[in-house]
Amino acid sequence: ATANLRRVRRKDVQVVRDGVGQRVAPRALVQGDVVVLAAGEVVPADCRVLSADGLEVDESSLTGESLPVEKAADPVDTAVLAERCSMLYEGSWVSSGEVTAVVVATGDQTESAVGAALAGEPPAGGVELRLQELTRRMIPLSLLAGAGVAGMGMLRGRPVGETVGAGVSLAVAAVPEGLPFVATVAQLGASRRLARRSVLVRNPRAIEALGRVDVICADKTGTLTEGRLDLRVVTDGVIEAADGDLPDELESVLVAAMRATPPGDPSDLAHPTDRAVARGGSDLGLPLYEADEAWTTFDISPFDPRRGYHAALGTVGEQPMVVVKGAPEVVLDRCVSVRRGKRTFDFDTAERDRIDAAVTRLTGRGLRVLAVADREVRSARTLGPNAIDQLRLRGLVGIADRPREEAGRAIDMLADAGIATIMITGDHPATAAGIGNELGLDGADVMTGAEIDDLDDDDLAARLRQVAVVARVTPVHKVRIVQALQRAGLTVAMTGDGANDAPAIRLADVGIAVGSASTQAAQTAADLVVVDANIETIVDAVVEGRGMWASVRDAVSLLTGGNLGEIGFTVLGTAFGGAPPVNTRQLLLVNLLTDAVPAMAIALRPPPDVTPEQLLAEGPEASLGEQLDQAIMLRAITTGSAASASYLAGRVTGTLPRARTMALVTLVGTQLGQTVAAGGRDPLVVGAGVGSAAALAFVVQTPGLSQLFGCQPLGPIGLATAAWWAGIGTAGAVLVPRVAPDLRIPTLDDVT
Question: Which of 19, 348, 352, 552 is most buried, taking the most CB atoms under 10 A from its CB?
Answer without folding.
Answer: 552
